[in-house]
Amino acid sequence: MSTGELQTLEAQANDSLAAIADETSLEDWRVNYLGRRSRLTEILRGLSALPLEERKQVGAAANRLREALETALAERRDMLRKRDVQTFIQQGRIDVTLPGRPIPMGRLHPVTQTQRDIVACFEKMGFQAVEGPEVEWDYYNFEALRIPEHHPARDMWDTMWIDYHRDGRMPMLLRTHTSPNQVRVMERQQPPIRVVVPGKCYRYEATDATHEWMLTQVEGLAVDEGISMADLKGTLYEFAQQLFGQERRVRFRCDYFPFVEPGADMSIDCFVCNGEGCSTCKGAGWIEIMGAGMVHPEILANVGYDPERYTGFAFGMGVERVAMLRHDIEDIRLFYQNDLRFLEQF
Ligand code: FA5
Known about the structure:
The chain is an alpha+beta fold. The chain has eleven helices and ten strands.
């Protein structure tokens, strides 16, 4: 084997390439000079059997030749294609005046659209959007929110565990709500706080028209001197009016969440039956969209705030429920079936 043979091979390859005028012959050329059974591949495979000095010389030359032939092949292919297009245009076989084919445009998922609208609404009221982890420690999801192990309040959130008490480590789970971020945010910064935290949550849930096992929530938290329940109601009324318009009715009722005192839930009158009662609202006439309340003083104290000086409100709303209300969607499960006939309507 010598570099002289490679030069002869290169000359041969270039001569025959110059004579090629169609794609089929070009493919034959590629197989012949660059294919698995080509002389060049054979030379490259045999390199290891050569003495060191010769191996270096022939190896470098053979690799250079392979690169040169690959480049020549690409150029020839390009040239042939351009020539074909020119010929087609000259023969009138391509009408360059035809309008272009439309490119199908993607769009945001309706839940993402609604999530962005909710966040934008609170941003206008001075809230800042932040994010937190979807895989969460038991501590932030439960303990720090006054829901200790074995407390019956844990039954309110059917949980998907990632790692439970193995090796004595802290249990880990898929967050069941965005509320862990109340504590995460308060640990990081001092009042005044006004944040919203959007994100996915997961529950080990039997699904129905208004329940999914993966849901999106937007958490809200405001902590400052002198914040009262009136601020909470005023803020959420404003939100409801901006998002749903004046005609929808809003209802607050007492509710229990261990991390707020007092606690409430907020519902909107059912868009399907206008409050009469139907299968979507399960006969209630109302659809619950969020839980809310005044941040429990113990939680404020645990993060080092003075509960005598600071008070706060928090809320957590279901984005799918809000999207259902806005677009008259009767079943939450439609969002995640990936049916384009449904998704393209938004
Ligand atoms: C909570 O998750 C509390 N973290 C809310 C909260 C935050 C209370 C701050 C107080 C202070 P709840 O489990 O009720 O609460 O869920 C809140 C909202 O999420 C519900 O009102 C509903 O709109 C939505 N939601 C709950 N479960 C589901 C589900 N399986 N599918 C779809 N949406 C759901």
